[in-house]
Write a structure and sequence with these properties.
single chain; about 240 residues; alpha/beta; 2 domains; 8 helices
Length: about 240
């Protein structure tokens, strides 16, 4: 696998033995999670890791820049949600998923690579982070991925799923994105420990209908998914 066409930022080109090691770790992790990856998808996700490392220091994309840690804490930690979204969407033809507070494109880029029939919009209030996602989409040939620079409250689009990864409290997440959900859309919050106090603080018309514990390969930390939906589609003014 060659990365000669990548932008010459940050750490420069990774050696081929490191790329092979990361690719092998990605394949092993995906098998553990029950996600089938093609050779192309393995290549795309490994190149994505490399681009994060290149852009990371210059554009402050992530505090984690060690390659193996990036694989575990970023890619595998995002890949873990794919089977759960598969089950929820149940072969919907072209679902639209909005990733808010996306940062470097997590989990949005990973979803776009693994499920090319899903339309993914990654939204971030920081222009350079949205620009990075756009660069990733172009470099990896992801026609289903869009990076948008915007405050979430100002977005004018609709989604089947609104997802966040360490974006905000559940109450703030719901409040600033409820206008994005089209019936019967759902929120999916990626959390560490089950956020019981945040769940208790949600408004009465927001239902937590499932909390799923997750196990991420080689990541020794608690993870869970919090699934939410509106009990009423229109709130009184």
């Amino acid at each position: 696998m060659s990365l000669a066409g990548s932008e010459g930022l940050g750490q420069g080109l990774w050696p081929e033995d490191l790329l092979r090691e990361l690719s092998a770790g990605l394949v092993e992790g995906a098998v553990h999670l029950g996600v089938a990856l093609s050779e192309l998808q393995v290549d795309q996700l490994t190149r994505y890791l490399h681009m994060m490392a290149q852009w990371g220091r210059v554009y402050n994309l992530t505090a984690i820049l060690e390659p193996q840690a990036m694989l575990t804490h970023h890619v595998l930690d995002s890949l873990v949600v794919v089977p759960h979204l598969d089950a929820h969407l149940n072969s919907a033809p072209v679902p639209h998923i909005v990733d808010v507070g996306s940062g470097a494109g997590l989990p949005g880029v990973v979803l776009a690579v693994t499920r090319p029939n899903w339309h993914i919009t990654c939204v971030d209030a920081v222009a350079k982070k949205a620009a990075f996602v756009q660069q990733v989409a172009a470099a990896l040939g992801l026609a289903n991925l869009t990076g948008v620079h915007s405050r979430v409250e100002a977005l004018r689009l609709t989604a089947d799923v609104v997802v966040s990864r360490a974006f905000a409290s559940l109450t703030d997440f719901v409040a600033c994105t409820e206008h994005l959900l089209k019936p019967p859309g759902v929120w999916l919050a990626m959390k560490g420990q089950e956020p019981r106090s945040e769940i208790e603080a949600l408004p009465s018309d927001t239902e937590v209908f499932h909390v799923e514990p997750l196990t991420v390969p080689a990541l020794h930390a608690e993870r869970c998914l919090v699934w939410m939906r509106q009990l009423k589609q229109v709130r009184p003014i």
